Amino acid sequence: MQAIARPLARAAPRQVRAAAALSTWANVPAGPPDPILGVTEAFKADQDSRKINLGVGAYRDGNGKPYVLSSVKKAEEFLTANNPDKEYLPISGLPEFTKAAAKLAYGADSKPLNDSAVAVVQSISGTGALRIGGAFFHKFFPHSKAIYIPNPSWGNHTAVFRDSGLEVKQYRYFDKKTVGLDFQGLKEDLRSIPTNSLVLLHACAHNPTGVDPTPEQWKEISDIIKEKSLFPFFDMAYQGFASGDTTRDAFALRHFVSEGHQVALSQSFAKNMGLYGERVGAFSVTCADEGEKKRLESQLKIIVRPMYSNPPLHGARIASTILNSPELYTEWEDEVKGMANRIISMRDRLYDNLVSLKTPASVAQKAHIYMTADGRISMAGLNGHNVDYFSESVSKAVKGEL
């Protein structure tokens, strides 16, 4: 018996070592690189002085450098002078921020807002707001578990809603032939969507096309959505960035509310306040009355608690300080207009350059120019120093001259 036992005892360590060599995660495949962050990494590795990064959706100044708003700097100085603590926020966020964010979006004269009928929670920027919304609709929307988004839409919309448990479907939006809104296709698709479905709408500065409905078209869209009893979920990541006017950019949302729609809203302050890394946003839903608002807020907190417990503090304080200070608010609005005007001027100059260079309508290659594969570009990445080079490079690429 001992002779048999000894070889088995000696073999055991080898078996353990063999088993240990097979990791628990050995069959986990490598995922694809993020389409935007991957572009940024390639941009950083390029040593050419002419390189241009048009992938990242972040504002850059006229010299291509990150830009911190003056109003943000002043808000931070004010906060520092008041020696703030670093305590946890409530699950629903900083109250003075969520109240001001809702006012910015819905307007001071909003009936649901003045009736205390808007349930709102602070979120981890716009993406977090969408994720909260997706989870809320999956859990409580009494009709379909599908959401209809425009084709195309922001690349992360599908993943956010799919991972929230919603089925993602599409409706027509962009017409490649006219390089504009496929309004007829959009209306036809909205009319064919099952009654009581959930529909995502970009409030302004549609990502990735930059094409928005006109106010009159928004009114028609509102009528169709009301006829079909669809539920509108607005994504407003760029309030103020589309036109330079925060009121004008909130037209669609405010019109829908004034027409009696119940709506949901995702807000982000990453772009319009330059608070990219602070992750400041909000998710809100209009309700029938204050009692319904309180019930919805209680359920939103239940969704947030296991997701991330409570939101970040510093960025919310910055945004709140700006939104609640008449002087800083005025300065901020002027800065937003200035940023929007610079982007608009780059778009106009790029268009004029491409026309003057007799550039065909499609792009096939690039030269030290980094952008996502779908052709989306961040106009903020262009400035007076590189827009001509970009125009010439695009023209040459399309003509096959590179």
Write a structural description.
The protein has 402 residues and is of the alpha/beta class. It has 2 domains: 37-68 and 337-397, Alpha-Beta Complex (Aspartate Aminotransferase, domain 1); 88-312, Type I PLP-dependent aspartate aminotransferase-like (Major domain) (Aspartate Aminotransferase, domain 2), CATH 3.40.640. It is built from 15 helices and 11 strands. It has helices spanning 2-21, 37-45, 70-81, 95-106, 111-114, 125-140, 155-163, 183-192, 215-227, 246-249, 251-258, 290-308, 314-323, 326-356, 387-399, and strands at 52-53, 118-124, 146-151, 167-172, 174-175, 180-181, 198-202, 231-236, 264-268, 280-286, 369-370. The strands form 3 sheets. It has a 7-stranded mixed β-sheet. The protein has a two-stranded parallel ribbon with strand order 1-11. Strands 5-6 form a two-stranded antiparallel ribbon. β3, α7 (155-163) and β4 (167-172) form a beta-alpha-beta unit. The N and C termini lie far apart (80 Å). The model is unreliable at 1-9 (pLDDT under 50).
